Amino acid sequence: MRGLASVLYLAEVQRKSGFIGSSKAEFKFLACQRSEQNWSAVPGDEHIPAPDDATYGAGALVMVELTNSRQIQRHYEAGRSLVNILQNFSSLSKKFKTQEDEIEQWKQSLTYQSQELNRREMEIEVKQEEIEQAAAELDQVAIERNELEQHKAEVEELRIDLERKNSELEGAWAHLNGEIQRFEERQAAGIASSGLDEQQMQQVQMALEQLMGTVMPTESVREHVTQSFDLIAQQQAGLDQHWQALEQKQSAVGDRQHKLSSQSEALDQQKQSVAEAESQLQSAQVTQQQQQARLEQLEQQSQTFSQQIEAQNSLHQRVYDLLNASDQVRLGKKVDVSALEEMPIEALQSLVSDLEQDLDKMSRFVSDQEEELKLEQQAIDELGSKIAAANEYDRMQLEAEMTDEKDRYQMLNQTLVGQRRNLQERGEMLSQHRAVLLRRQGHAIESENPEPADLEPVLTHIDEMRQQLAERVQQLDAEAAGLRSQIESCQQEVERGQQELDNQRQALHQAEAQFSSQQAEVVTLQGQIQLYEGMLHPVQGRLNDYRQQLEQISNLIGQFQETSDYQLQAIAGMQQTIQSLAAAESTPEYAAV
Question: What would the mean pLDDT of 125-129 be, rounded to a whole number?
């Protein structure tokens, strides 16, 4: 664990030759750790002398920890640390890539929402213009309605005047009828004079002139009525356009409602698809959890068998230690003593010397292999600690590394089993050759011990047990590797399923937003239709009332015209009769009568 007051650097080892051929190591700083995941290059050419225990070769990369006083606190090779940094960088790159994809998706979603808002604003502007146009048309309708009201008032005044004239005409007719009746009464009473006197003639003539004056011409009234009919026709044409626009809007609403019904069914299908995708994703996640639990179980079993292998290795080593510590045990008979007795002593000495050298080389090689085995065990322990603290994504990669390290450890351990046994056997052969040589050279040797116990069957049994455990561990590791592959495939399937589910949800949200927008448009159109109907029906009703009243007035004018024509004909006839009477009275024959 690095101290809080130290700074970690990545450095390159450089060596400078001295006066007598020796070289002094220096650390050239390349990069400095600013935070856990942040490294920056060291500017310039900064060096620091390496301590005496730095035995690195020139060009090697090392990690150097410096205190605040620029003193070297610790240094070590940078290989494994660089690998970890690169792995973390790869993991961060993948995370950043995922975040970039998510940000891009959000950008696309925001772009779509912005376009949708712009479209809605344009639609609102268009609808606002339509409403303003409708309001203007309604204002025009109101103006025309006012004009129609004025014409109606004028027609009403004409009708009142016509009724007044008709009343006066009826009065004149009544007066005329009275005069005619008095004339007839006088004629019936046998008045001596059979004609009318001049005063009576003047009264009758004045009554006829008054009656003629009360007959009002209907041409001006008909002209006003005709203009009113024309204005009503114009109003009706304008209303017909509004009624046609209303029918078009009603048809458009019907089409949109039909489309909304189809979209509603499509939305239900999309929701069903999303529900099925969620169910499939949950099933895949459950399968992945089961596989992960099985993998942990296999790893625990493999760890248990590995511990048993370690115990067998320890037992095997103790048996070998017993061989080295006591001469009462052996591995088996490997030396032909009679042949050594007959061999020339010089050849025997050379053979013993060769065996000693071979045993020394073998011992150093086995020692190096033992040291390498310890380093492999340390690497496995470090990976185990990292796996315990890693997240799910890094754990899979670390577990793969753990499997590789365990495989190397098993291979090296299995190799060492035979090498240890070979070393032990060579040691025993050297001891037996050396004892024969000493005896032939006349040196005193200890008395022969009782026959030592043969440990070969014990070691063979231990080896068989270790082999069985190793095979079982290999089986478990192979099954775990296959299960990891399945977990990785399942993880990819889960990620794909999650991505597809997110896409389907996004598409569903967009479809719902579009459906809501179109539904709001339909509601707006329905409101416009209701507004149009609420304004058009009263106007159409009043226009129909005006037309009906004008038709009644037109009928009255026709009747009045017929009556006036009849009255004029009657007045003309009476005037002609009076003139005939006046002419008759002025003749002598009529005067004599």
Answer: 78
pLDDT > 70: percent of the chain = 77
Residue-level pLDDT at 192? 42
Decide the pairing of beta strands 453-454 and 47-49.
unpaired
For residues 508 and 274, the answer to whether their CB atoms sit within 8 Å is yes
Strand partners, 265: none
**Distance (Å, rounded) from C-alpha 537 to C-alpha 127?**
22
Backbone angles phi, psi at 66, to 5 degrees: -115, 145
The CA dihedral of 177, 183, 186, 187, to the nearest 10 degrees, is -120
Task: Answer yes or no: are the C-beta atoms of 54 and 25 closer than 8 Å.
Answer: yes
Contact 340, 347 (CB under 8 A): no
Give me the residues paired with residue 420 across strands: none
Specify the 3-state DSSP secondary structure of 303. Answer: helix
The residue with tokens 């098993």 is 410
Nearest residue to 432 via CA among 452, 415, 414, 413 = 452
Q: For the CA atoms of 461, 464, 470, 475, what is the dihedral angle to 10 degrees?
A: -130
Bridge-partner residues for 39, per DSSP? 33
Question: Can you give the three-state secondary structure of 65-103, one letter per residue?
Answer: EECCCCCEEEEEECHHHHHHHHHHHHHHHHHHHHHHHHH
pLDDT in tens, 201-245: 666 667 666 666 655 566 766 777 787 778 788 878 877 888 888
Q: Measuring CA to CA, which residue among 41, 84, 511, 531 is closest to residue 260?
A: 511
What are the two backbone dihedrals, phi and then psi, of residue 29, each rounded to the nearest 5 degrees? -75, 130
Rg (CA), the chain: 63
- CB-based contact 179:204 (threshold 8 Å): yes
- What confidence tens digit (pLDDT) does each residue in 277-305 have? 888 888 888 888 888 888 888 888 888 87
Looking up tokens 């997240």, which residue turns up? 391
Is-above-0.85 flag for pTM? no
Q: Chain centroid to CA 221: how far? A: 75
Whole-number Å distance between alpha carbons of 176 and 457: 167
Segment (H or E) for 25: strand 23-35
Q: Which amino acid is at 552?
A: Q
Taking residue 398's Cβ as centre, other Cβ atoms within 10 Å add up to 20
Tell me which residue has tokens 């005047």.
Answer: 161
Beta-bridge partner residues of 62:
11, 77
User: Is 46 within 8 Å of 29 (Cβ atoms)?
Assistant: yes
Q: What are the structure tokens assigned to 413, written together?
A: 């351990």
**Roughly what angle, to the nearest 10 degrees, separates helices 198-214 and 79-189?**
170
Confidence band (pLDDT; 50, 70, 90) for 194?
Answer: very low
Q: For residues 284 and 277, what is the distance between their CA atoms, to the nearest angstrom?
A: 10
In three state form, how does the secondary structure of 270-288 look?
A: HHHHHHHHHHHHHHHHHHH
Name the residue type at position 45: D
**Cα distance between residue 29 and residue 66, in whole Å:** 11
CB 284 within 8 A of CB 488: no
Q: How far apart are CA 561 and CA 294, in angstroms?
A: 112
Max Cα–Cα distance, the chain, nearest Å: 223
